[in-house]
Amino acid sequence: xxxxxxxxxxxxxxxxxxxxxxxxxxxxxxxxxxxxxxxxxxxxxxxxxxxxxxxxxxxxxxxxxxxxxxxxxxxxxxxxxxxxxxxxxxxxxxxxxxxxxxxxxxxxxxxxxxxxxxxxxxxxxxxxxxxxxxxxxxxxxxxxxxxxxxxxxxxxxxxxxxxxxxxxxxxxxxxxxxxxxxxxxxxxxxxxxxxxxxxxxxxxxxxxxxxxxxxxxxxxxxxxxxxxxxxxxxxxxxxxxxxxxxxxxxxxxxxxxxxxxxxxxxxxxxxxxxxxxxxxxxxxxxxxxxxxxxxxxxxxxxxxxxxxxxxxxxxxxxxxxxxxxxxxxxxxxxxxxxxxxxxxxxxxxxxxxxxxxxxxxxxxxxxxxxxxxxxxxxxxxxxxxxxxxxxxxxxxxxxxxxxxxxxxxxxxxxxxxxxxxxxxxxxxxxxxxxxxxxxxxxxxxxx
Length: 447
Fold this sequence. Notes:
The chain is 80% helix and 0% strand. It is globular and about 65 Å long. It has helices spanning 5-19, 22-38, 45-63, 71-89, 92-96, 100-103, 105-109, 117-132, 134-148, 155-173, 176-179, 184-192, 198-231, 240-260, 265-285, 288-301, 303-322, 325-333, 338-355, 360-376, 382-398, 403-412, 416-422, 425-446.
């Protein structure tokens, strides 16, 4: 019964999106709160501490004179949305276990010229991630473990193969904030600053994405080639045409729903992925109870990541409500030369705070709120917005507490710190100087 609370909360939030009824989101938030109160002791240590800190910030917000009553419904709706966002798209993992065509995906990606091996993997992960978000991580990681079980690899070969593909997948996912109109980064920036549309920021995102691909290209290609050689399977991947057609139909359905409703592409994916997965389970097993058990168990396996995302939404909203952003903006507007320094600070602070445990979405919400105040005062904000976008992208790679890192750690059996620092530390240090050059170029272009 307790496990059914997560599917219930997600279902209520999806209904809230479809029917545009805010009170359903508030009810979903209450259901999630009940589940996590009942299972708080089963969460990992970091989510527990994050929950305690979030509670303290919410109490401070309640006692702050700047807070008005309209804050609390907004916070509840945000927490329900972001918690459901991860859970709904994570159901792709159930398809990964059942569809044989998906297990052939990695065979297709590992074939062909070695020159395009790494960028093709990265761009495929980024393309899927732009629609499915964290569902892409579950999809590619779930199909990878299934794919490698088919071959007589040694433990070392299997471990190194997992590392190479997973780190490439993660870096592809990090391109989503730079390129995708469906990313949470673009959504928050464009909501706070309507003049900074996706099309306006895309050229800078493309430059940053090219820099990141070039930095990882040589190093990770060796690992992907080694995995392909160890597998030694030169047969052609089967079912790719059907998988491509199915993917296109899914994308068309997502686009169609987004075009005829008030939903965005990401929200449409949130709705259609659970519908598609549950429909498949019911068609295959003919057992509603078994389908509910599988959905509930899949969500339970992600409850740490769901809790982190929900707390991040609460923290970002609460801190934004009580922080003196107007005063800070007035001080910064008096000295336009601080514009470039603010951009660099946006880049480094988002990454640094992510490393020590502050979810990137919290930093994103706070800095975006500050930039919105600067925009009202007439200060050019493109350069700090680009710094914020790049910082959020790298924070997804190097944060040991982020949902993407936790998903990779669960599949690989490594610790989140090993995934964040051991797998990606050198990459982040290598790409940072290039991103700083991008910020200098953006500042010069807009000055």
